[in-house]
Amino acid sequence: MFSVNPSDPTPIYAQLDRGIRAAIATGQLRTGDRLPTVRQLAVDLKVNANTVAKVYAELERAGVLATQRGVGTTVRDTAEDLVSRTSKAERESTLRLLADKLLADAYAIGLTIDEVIRHLEARRA
Amino acid sequence: MFSVNPSDPTPIYAQLDRGIRAAIATGQLRTGDRLPTVRQLAVDLKVNANTVAKVYAELERAGVLATQRGVGTTVRDTAEDLVSRTSKAERESTLRLLADKLLADAYAIGLTIDEVIRHLEARRA
Amino acid sequence: MFSVNPSDPTPIYAQLDRGIRAAIATGQLRTGDRLPTVRQLAVDLKVNANTVAKVYAELERAGVLATQRGVGTTVRDTAEDLVSRTSKAERESTLRLLADKLLADAYAIGLTIDEVIRHLEARRA
Amino acid sequence: MFSVNPSDPTPIYAQLDRGIRAAIATGQLRTGDRLPTVRQLAVDLKVNANTVAKVYAELERAGVLATQRGVGTTVRDTAEDLVSRTSKAERESTLRLLADKLLADAYAIGLTIDEVIRHLEARRA
DNA sequence: GTGGTCTAGACCACG
DNA sequence: GTGGTCTAGACCACA
Lengths: 125, 125, 125, 125
Description:
homotetramer; 125 residues; mainly alpha; Arc Repressor Mutant, subunit A; 5 helices; globular; DNA-binding
C-alpha cells in the first residue's frame, strides 16, 4: 500500500508521511479507514517501528489521523475546510508551481508528461 | 534559477542537486553553460557555501558538471546523458515518490487528484 | 533553568515542553534568546538527547522555537496574535478552570494558595 | 465530579488518581463517602473500566480508599493523612511542575504571569 | 496486542 | 560542534 525508498535522500518518515497523505488524496484511504498497526507497517516497509510511530504521531497532531491508545489508528474527518482556506486563484497558481516542480524532476530522470499522467491515472481510486 | 526550501525535510543538498539536474533536463541549462559561482549561489539561496560546494563536487564526480580552474563550473552533460544513467526500476520508484509529494501538497490546499490530472493534461498540449 | 522529575507520571517530554513554555511565559526566556544545545540540556537534565530533541522539534512545529541546522535553537517571535485569538471573557473563564485545577492538585499535597502565589511571584522575571 | 482529558499527555490513570486525591483534599469527598462504581465512572469519563479499576486498586493499596464487598468503594483517608505522606522535597518539585503547566496553558491563550497571579490573589480573600 | 515513551548509540547534514 | 534521522530494544498504559 505504501512504499519507501531508503536510498532516496528524502527522510523515510517524510516519504511515509507524504505517502499516507497521497493515499488519502487519491481516495485509497477514506475517513474512518484503519491504517496498518505501527509494528505491522514497520515490518512491511522494513523500517524501524519508531519511524512509523513518529509519522502516525505527526499526522495525528496535524489532524489527519486519529489514534486511540490500545486500539489503533484511523483516518480522520478530512477535507473539512481545507478548500475554504485558500482562494481559487491561489490554489491554481500553487498547483502550477507544484506541477512545475514535479515535471522538472520527472524530466531529469527521463520521464515524459504522458508517463506522469498515466501514473496518476493508475492511482485514481 | 534554482530554489531551495529550508522547511522541506528533504536535505538542502538533495534539493539543489535535483534542481540542477532538472534545469539541464528541461533545457534551461545546456552543455557548456556556466553555473553561478559557489559563493554567489550560496548568497542567492541563503545557504551555506559548503553545501553548494559539496553539490558541485558531487555533480562533478558524477560527470554532470566540469570545473576548470580560473574559468568556473560548466555543464558537461546533456539531458540524454543524465537519463541514460537512470535505471528503469529507479525511475519508477522515484516517480512514485514525486507523485506522492505532489498529491500530498495538492491535497493540503484542497485539490483532488482529478484536478491535478486535469491540470497536467491541459499542459500536455 | 528547567527541571524534570522522572518519577512523576507525566512524560518527561511533556514536562520539558511545559517548562520551556513556562519560561517564556514568565519572561525568563525572551524572543531571540538561545536555548541550551540539545546535548547540553540532555546532560543537565540527566535525560536522553533524543528526548530533548523531540521537545525542541515539537516546539518548533508549534511555532514557539526556531532552529537552524548546525547553529542552534532560539525563541521565536511569540505572543503575536495569541491574545487576539481568544475573547477576554473566554480567557477569564479558562483561567478560572486552569487555576481550579492547579489549586486542587496543590491542596492535595498540602500546599496553600499563599504558597502557590509565593512560588509564582518568585518566578516572575 | 472528576474529569479527564484524553489529549493531555499525562496518563489517564494519573489524572484520575490526582483528581480523587484533590477531591479529598478540597473536602469534596470526606471520610466514609462512597465513590461511583468502577463501571459507572468508566462510562461517565468515557474511559476503559480497567483503567478506573487500577486507580481504585492503587489508591486502596495507598490507604486512601477502602473497598468493602457488597458495599462499594469509600474514602478512608482524611486530607491530613494525604498530606502527611508527602515529603517537602516532593511537594516542591510537584509545585514547580504544576505551576509550569498552569503557566504554559495560560500563556497559550495570551495570559501573562502577572494576570495569573492577580487572579489567584483575588481568590485568596 | 495496540500505541507511547525512553534509552543508547550510530551516522548524516550543515555551519 | 550543531541539530536530524534512524535503529534496536526495553518497558509502560490501555483495551
